[in-house]
Amino acid sequence: MFKNDLLNYSGILGAFLFMITTAIGGALFDGYSHISQYISESYAYGTEYGHLLRWLGYIPSGLLIGFFHFMVAKKLKDNKYIFIGLIGFGILYGIFTSLVSVFPCDFGCNRNYSDSSVSQFIHTVLSLFTYALTPFSIYFTGVGFKKLANFKVLFRLSTLLSIAVFTFGMVFLLNANSPIAGLLQRITEAMYLFWIIYFSVFLIKYNKRLK
Which UniProt keywords apply (predicted)? Predict the structure, then answer.
């Protein structure tokens, strides 16, 4: 069912590229705190290495993640729940990860949103959609897998993870000015990345069992 190696590993590559870029961005930004600062602050307008982090890291990461989910959705298009869920995730988390990098926030990511640039406004709106709606994509995907005998574990994981990631996402958005806002964001992102990697590895192992 999933015999294309590029397809099978594109999700993993995208997730790891995101993590590596986040780590590098924090290391390059003098005085940067992963606990208090947004991920976006490391590649905002005015940062020394922001353009490199965006174009060599986050943008290709989002495209790889989007590609993975779109291609799997194409192969499972007969299941409407899986199809809607995967397309939704590919857009809301994959493509939007790339778009928020095309439209970075202003230096320091002005948290009061006063006198924000058009780029930061777009960046903020896309981020809100990602954190508010992507959990539902995971849930829909899980509902679809419930009907497939060999994929029941994905149903259980998707259900639990969609609740957890929605909860943490809302806590982050409601505490965006908190001194631990960066930590809350990273916990939320970590759950999304866990989903991508687990789903990718599951499909790789499933494919090997079919050989």
Answer: Membrane, Transmembrane, Transmembrane helix
CB-based contact 39:172 (threshold 8 Å): no
- Asked whether the whole model's pTM tops 0.85, one would answer yes
Cβ neighbours around 162 below 10 Å, total? 23
Helix ranges restricted to H, 76-151: 80-89, 96-102, 118-145
Q: How many Å apart are CA 164 and CA 46, to the nearest integer?
A: 34
Q: What is the pLDDT of residues 123-175, one digit of tens each?
A: 999 999 999 999 999 999 999 999 888 888 999 999 999 999 999 999 999 99
Which of the 8 DSSP states describes residue 80? H
Domain limits of the chain?
11-206
| Backbone Cα Rg of the chain | 17
Output the CA torsion sign for 8, 11, 15, 17: positive
Pick the closest to residue 22 from 188, 209, 199, 195 (CA basis): 188
Give the DSSP letter of residue 104. P
